[in-house]
Amino acid sequence: MNRVRGGLLNDSDVLNDSAFARDVLAGLSATPKRLMSRYFYDERGDELFQAIMASPEYYLTDCELEILREQGEPMATAMATDEPFELVELGSGDGSKIRYLLDALQANGADFSYRPVDISAAVLDQLAGRLRPGRPWLELRPMAVNYMAWLEDLVPGEQRRVFAFMGSNLGNFGDEGAVGFLSLLRRAMGPRDALLIGLDLKKDPAIIRAAYNDAAGVTAAFNLNLLARINHELGGEFDPAGFEHAPEYDPATGAARSWLRSLRDQRVPIAALERDFTFAQGERVFMEISQKYDDAMIADLSTRSGFRVAADFRDRRGWFTDQLWVP
Ligand code: AVJ
Hints:
disordered N terminus, 7-stranded mixed beta sheet, globular, binds N,N,N-trimethyl-histidine
């Protein structure tokens, strides 16, 4: 939790105290203004993301669940060698999808342990509660850390590792960010390691637009919640009713972007930043990119970051892919 001491914060407090404060200051000082989607996930944000995954328009979770449920066996075969390995899932969440893969690996006689890595200890407790019952064989080694920071210091291990980065989380990095992240991961991998990566594919634009603008307004609330978080944690005075959710999808590039648009001219003080920020009517704040891929983009991305695509598993509709990438 960030400390807000009315009027007593100086610049070095702001700069040293919290990455959140620093990133909000930089983002709202930029043109166009932007906020970072990694900050969506406070307690309320976690709840809203769960609700997004349960919404009828958000197909990504259903597609990946179908792949894991119905192709767990070939996936387990593609992933395992005779060597014992550790399955390291980056940003595991509560483990609701991966269980199909764990069960398929076990059925295949794979010798493996499972290390879910997530920034939220609460979510890892839920994961353990969900996965432990009925799986006495599971070697579960949860780790509550920021996986980005952890990866920076990670070197190839003695034991083989298979990383998993599911759910099209890569799509939030943008193009350069994605190559940067994958290259970082690649440097931490030994020659026999592998990466299981989930990527959302280009499809009928109407389907994608609906997924990021659901009729019940959950995605809108998810974006607006970041303004509420700034209010709580940084002493901001945003009126969330002063902004609207304005997502867009460009079928040519596959970029789905979310913006918040100011509904009027307004000035918003943020105490912890000791600044007011002005928003013109119609001005947009960039919130998130959710990249959609096609085969050419995936070939390009994997090559640029030092990987080769070894296996490709898609749902029946061909909307989503889980791929095994190797060095
Ligand atoms: C968790 C990054 C995969 O981009 O589809 C869902 C987040 N944002 N609805 C995505 C999200 C709006 C989601 N990822």
